[in-house]
Design a protein that fits this description.
The chain is an alpha/beta fold. The protein has three domains: 53 residues, no CATH class; 141 residues, Serine Threonine Protein Phosphatase 5, Tetratricopeptide repeat; 148 residues, 3-Layer(aba) Sandwich (Glutaredoxin), CATH 3.40.30.10. It is 53% helix and 8% strand. The chain is built from 21 helices and eight strands. The strands form two sheets. It has a six-stranded mixed β-sheet, with helices on one face. Strands 4-5 form a two-stranded antiparallel sheet. β7 and β8 form a beta hairpin. α1 runs antiparallel to α2, α3 packs across α4 and α3 packs parallel to α5. The chain is elongated.
Length: 444
């Protein structure tokens, strides 16, 4: 029903009632009657209540209405339409539903609408639903979850979360544990949202600690190392980082104590080892370089089988992969470093990779040795020739990603001193910077 039509009818009812009562000489408003006690002003208010809260009350949306809005909008959407054009089309369909109060949409209906609308309507639907779910987010974990989903981009790129941020609102709702119980997908979504925050603060850290202690499903809990990786590279205090590390480590220990799934146990063991290692515990730099064993070493006559065999030399380690575009893009710089130190036996420029099951050849072809590690290693010599690699290459037994060196992405540079200690980790900058750091560690 059109709002202007409703208002017109309402105004006429009120005016006619007042004129009628006054024309009757106030007979209906005698003090002894119920209407007399109410008075003219009170009667007008009562009529307003009847009209707006009774005869013309707006109803909550039904599931079928919401599906109709999505269906009719999707039918008219054209591929070239902008997000604004899709939103305008969506709102036209919303208004066509008439006397419906969409602020009364339930949290379950929000989820159904987003799912039913699909990818083509995701952005306009979130734009429409965002202010609606935000009204209830502080008092309901289910609404708070959909509030986060409607604000995903903002939360992930936030430069500093506040109490009003959708992620913190969700983490601080009282009914969070009950809402998450048995809801693995929501648990995992929250883990990824926390891990994607760009700038941590103490309030987020405290809320995250509470979240970690909740009884999470193993499939969600096994992903929480991502939270540690995000927090550990932030500006949080080392004390807070270690509190998060210990809480996350306990989660993996709990998985190991309860799971019967072999794959889950293996993943939990890997993450528990990582979180107990020197990088995660903050003892890597200045401590002994974690050992790495080599399946293959390009300088075969040197007899080097493991990293510690290079003790007495300054070693710049480049963790890399054969299918890593940034790693390959850095090859010219690595070649320059090798050229700079080619006559200095006390310096080793060493690239360490891991058998990935495939190698990209110089002409762009991909060879898949699969689990044949020996063949994987044998192809490395040909790869080096095709790519013009002049520095030493090693294929390690240990996975270079998430190693004890905190390799979260590649390429990753670390420098080991002559005593076999990690002098620098996650080295960034051009070769001028690298040469400066290496020369500080060489014999004077």
């Amino acid at each position: 029903m059109n709002n202007s039509f409703v208002n017109n009818i309402l105004n006429k009812i009120i005016v006619l009632t007042i004129l009628t009562l006054r024309g009757m000489g106030g007979l209906a408003l005698k003090n002894s009657s119920p209407l007399g006690k109410l008075g003219e002003a009170g009667l007008v208010g009562f009529l307003l209540f009847l009209c707006t809260g009774g005869l013309f009350a707006q109803t909550a949306p039904t599931d079928e209405q919401l599906k109709t809005i999505c269906r009719e909008t999707a039918f008219e959407v054209k591929g070239h339409m902008t997000d604004q054009e899709r939103y305008d089309l969506l709102m036209a369909k919303v208004k066509a539903q008439g006397n419906t109060d969409f602020r009364k949409i339930t949290a379950a209906q929000v989820g159904m609408t987003l799912e039913y609308g699909g990818i083509s309507l995701e952005t306009p639907l979130k734009e429409w639903l965002r202010p609606i779910v935000a009204e209830h987010a502080a008092s309901s974990s289910e609404y708070a979850y959909w509030n986060l989903k409607c604000n995903t981009i903002q939360s992930m790129t936030s430069a500093g979360l506040t109490k009003e941020d959708p992620l913190l609102l969700l983490l601080n709702t009282k009914g969070l544990e009950a809402f998450l119980t048995g809801n693995t997908n929501c648990q995992t979504e929250i883990v990824y949202s926390i891990a994607n925050v760009k700038a941590w603060n103490d309030e987020l850290a405290a809320a995250t600690l509470r979240f970690i202690t909740l009884p999470l499903d193993d499939n969600a809990a096994v992903q929480i190392y991502r939270i540690f990786n995000s927090a550990f590279t932030s500006e949080l205090s080392m004390e807070t980082k270690q509190q998060l590390r210990e809480a996350i480590l306990k989660k993996y220990q709990d998985i190991l104590a309860t799971t019967d799934r072999r794959s889950m146990k293996r993943r939990a063991e890997e993450q528990a080892k990582y979180l107990s290692g020197p990088y995660a515990s903050g003892t890597l730099v200045g401590g002994p370089a974690p050992e790495m064993h080599f399946r293959w070493y390009s300088d075969s006559i040197s007899g080097v089988k493991k990293l510690s065999d290079l003790k007495g030399k300054v070693v710049l380690i480049d963790f890399w992969g054969t299918k890593c575009a940034p790693c390959i893009a850095a090859f010219p710089e690595m070649a320059e470093l090798q050229q700079h130190y080619k006559d200095n036996p006390d310096v080793v420029i060493l690239g360490i990779t891991y058998p990935l099951g495939y190698i990209t050849t110089g002409d762009g072809k991909i060879i898949y040795p699969g689990r044949d590690v020996a063949r994987d290693c044998s192809l490395m010599g040909e790869y080096m020739q095709q790519k013009g690699i002049t520095w030493t290459i090693a294929v390690s037994e240990e996975n270079v990603i998430k190693s004890d060196y905190g390799v979260l992405t590649i390429p990753h540079i670390a420098i080991i001193d002559r005593e076999g200690r990690v002098a620098y980790n996650k080295v960034v900058g051009d070769n001028t910077k690298k040469i400066e750091l290496i020369d500080e560690l060489r014999p004077k």
